[in-house]
Amino acid sequence: IIGHAGKAVTTWYLSGKTHLLDPITLDTVETADYSRPPGHGVSAHPKVDEITGEMMVFDYFDHHPFMAYGVVNKDGKLVHHVPIELPGSRLPHDMGITKNYSILHDLPVYHDEDALKAGRHKIRFNASQPARFGIIPRFGKASDIQWFEFSSCFVYHVINCWEEGDDIVMTACRFMPVKDKDGLIDEIATAKTIARLGMNARLWRYRMNVKTGESSEVCLNPEFNCEFPSYDSSRTGRYSQFAYLVDHNPNTLHWTGIRKFNTDTGESLGSWTDGHEDCWYSEPWFAPADNSRSEDHGYVITFMWNDKKQEQELQVFDALDLSAGPLARIKMPHAIPVGFHA
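and the corresponding structure tokens:
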């Protein structure tokens, strides 16, 4: 779910029709068609440029050319749509934007064809294929896209992207492929772990130069397994320094707490949990303070389910100091699904 043009825009990670909801009453207003042939819908995680009001979307499907990209204007009208040719069917999950470009994902994860024909959702991971990110001007043609290759992996969620001269910078949570006893990628175990959301992810930075074609990647923090990232969304597509993520135990699929990072250095800047064993946290969101004095002057808001007490809370933190604990705890009348993110 993402806010755009005064509506709550609901999307699906396997790509489908978009529904627009009244953000206050949650009444369905209409079904929005943000796609054109050869596509059929919109995937989850479109990106809104809060300065221009434009929303960038992508679609993927099981037939040639396998992906499409579009721009919805600030009034909610699809004004740009182009097919994006991939080498084959893929299962991307997210995208990124900068002030002038969009970043599309071609990752080595796709449907098992036999399972798909039988109507089942089963995925494959191919370690011999690189991860590729395609840079396309916001209103560019399909022929304008530039592809950059990186180490083989999957990426569930992007944090933010921006431009530094001719460089496109993307910070993200890189899924760490499962290794066998010889240190090689175990494709079957990796696919199963991705499918069951065992997110063994690390904070990562990718850099792509649109003039020279050069690229680089670096792990920003090898210690903490974190996912479901957020940041000050008013900076989407522009430089941001701080991000707020959920700590994860991939063995138990347990979201144990929230953590703040400096995405320049990868440094952990504080964390909080009400209890690693009993408490489950959801994606945090950032709300700037009135007359904020810095990027991280504001509040971090997250859902927390206490399984021992069978209680649901909405917790509010000072973004400058997560480790101080919640400033407020709002008791919710019912449970929110663990892993809900929007």
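(Above: one complete record from the training split.) DSSP finds two helices and 27 strands in the chain.
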